[in-house]
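hey all, quick one before standup. I had two proteins in the batch that finished overnight and I want to keep them in one place so we stop losing track of which output belongs to which input. First protein below, input sequence then structure tokens straight from the run.
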Amino acid sequence: MNRWPKISLGLRLFFLYFILVGMTAYMVSKTVIQELKPTVRQTTEETLVDMANLLAVLAEEDVANGKLSESRFSQLLATYGQRAPQARIWEVGKKAINHRIYITDKLGIVIADSWQQDVGKDYSQWNDVYLTLRGQYGARTTIEDPKDPLSTVMHVAAPIYHKGGIIGSVTVAKSNRSVQPFIDLSKRNVLFGMVWMSGLVLLVGALFAWRIHSALNRLEDYATKMGEGEKVSKPTFRIFYEYGTLSDALEKMRNQLDGKQYVEEYVQTLTHELKSPLSAIKGASEILQMPLPEDKVTRFASNIERESDRMQSLVDKLLELARIEKRLELEQVQPISLKQMVSEVVASADARLSAKLVTVSIKIDENIAVLGDTFLLKQAVFNLMDNALDFVYSEGGIEWSTDISKQNVRLSIFNSGPHIPDYAMPRLTERFYSLARENGVKSTGLGLNFVEQVTKLHQGTLQVENVESGVKVTLTLPTL
């Protein structure tokens, strides 16, 4: 007993889709959020570099003259540090200046400070000043409160040049706490957008899962009613064309199973094919029961023999087809020399070739071989030869040839003769379908069907085409 719960295919697909969307949303949001903080800080550092270099150019003259503390520039720095902007950047308010600017001389002594608190102090030990005064990129991040990870301050310095030498440095500092609100806002927006987008994607997935489930239910209902013998219309699908193909296949199967296109046609045609020779045999036997001259007795006895042979041929070929259709694959395979096989078939048809004065040419390399069932493939070649003899012109020609590629061997037979009518081309391999021969007699209509079944069993294809001056039939078979 199966203990697993029955879960519909649509629901299973949605669960899988849900897991994939959830994992993707989680990984993407996690990656984006992790990259937000360093990206914002990198952007902030780049802005501080520009600002420090601008101030270094503006402060050059006053620092060189040693009058920075008394200059207009120093007063402007102090005024800048005391400003209280009333700004609102997106959803974040800004009411204080977060930048701190200080300038040192070439010894690292602070000579100007926008906060007016460290003038005169020695900052030469700090990396921003120490490295800058030595011509390197000076930057540092210092934490003000070890217990508060957000209390870090970023310092970026730029050298003050005068006559090719460094005479001081300008440092611009900014607390990382001032940019944290923007980071938090971005995180919320990313999470909100990811949740909203995931919900929308899941909604679309649920819609598709529902459509798949409903389509399967329609197909299941159609198959069930069809199996019960109900007359039900074939379901149509505008989006899922695969279901439309399956629906067409079920419709075709129904037509075949209920006898419309398979059983009725098969039985009726078989009955018709047997009825004709039976009627001829019955008529000839009734006539033979009356006194007749010797020549007429021989004539009607020949009719009985000919019609009996026709019935025997029909029954034999039907049995051969039945055996082939039951086989899913070849049981015994071996290398088959195509030239040898064709030569044997041509030799067996010598009497008919002589009667019609037909010439045969075999253009097949002795080294060409295929892997297959010798008996079945030879019977198929016999059928092709018989067909060619039925339609070839008297004193005409038949030509066997091969064409080989890396994957396939194409075995072809050409016969000079009338072209096959266009209306008959699609039906040539149907059971019992036959065209009248030169003498007006029809065959059993099973020969090409047998050839097609044998070819398919050998994983090959059959092609019949009209060519110049005749008809060409090609068997395409896999190479060894």
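OK second protein, same deal, sequence then tokens:
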Amino acid sequence: MPRRPVAVFAIAPWAFGGVFPADLLARLRQLVDIDPTTTFTSFDGPAATAALAEAEILITGWGCPRIDAAVLSAAPRLRALVHAAGTVKAHVDPVVFESGVVVSSAAEANAVPVADYTIAMLVLGAKQVFSRARRYAAATAGTPPDWLAGDGTGLHHCTVGVVGASRIGRHVLRRLRRFDVEVLLYDPYVNAAEAARLGAEPVGLDDLCRRSHLVTVHAPALPETRHMLDARRLDLLPENAVVVNTARGSLIDTQALTRACATGRISAILDVTDPEPLPPGHPLLAMPNVLVTPHLAGAQGRELRRLGDFAVAEVDRLLNGAPLVGRVEPEHLPHIA
């Protein structure tokens, strides 16, 4: 019987059980030799050194140490890195690609719950659910109700501005087709024909801000995207507009957003912030028209399994010579989250 490839886990223990439940581990162990009782969050020490010396495949996830030249030197047999989480940007040094090691990420699988969260927040944000619920809870007997729906609430016939046709952005664009909304797209790398295929009108970012009732952000964190929604662009938003950010906190100027939301003119739903987390007592945390969630849009709880399922299938494809669905190329790094 031919020898199976040796694989090693490098993933935080808190995530391991959710990403790789027993049945997925059983499937994986049919493909590779791997110790399911050992997962590394540091490659220091004799146990890690011994494991790396035999490893042909690294199966990584949240908590994985950075894979750099030193790790490659300790892992002379390594030929693939399969990341059972989203972005590999913080974990994989460019030298990994230069060495010929194949890199794959489950970012496509992780994009699904983020897109679902985004759509849910667009629906709730368009109804002004969070501020209305707080007013409802604070109401006292005999006072006129101020939580009732206004003429400008609801997603129907809204204009939704999508900033970035990233992997998640495209999932959101596909989901928006189920709703009777006008969709605008700002992405300098997407031409008019592709935008039309995605069901959106391509526009500049200023125009998107002027026209959108709701803006959802799905761009990567790059020097050129830092504070792309600054004070000037936030001022372009129409009255009662809602900003949803599930991408990176640095894409929005936090001070400018705080000032804009404090007036009550716009609202915000933020799963990411800058800084993250916001310091205790930050004004955004207490505003009735702002919802801040603790970076939970990505895979959580039962959703973690989707990442492990993707990773096991990717290992199977790798060993059978099939194209990797989640393959990451070095030219992708500057443009991913």
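Flagging for whoever picks this up: The two ends are 42 Å apart (CA to CA). The chain has a mean pLDDT of 95.
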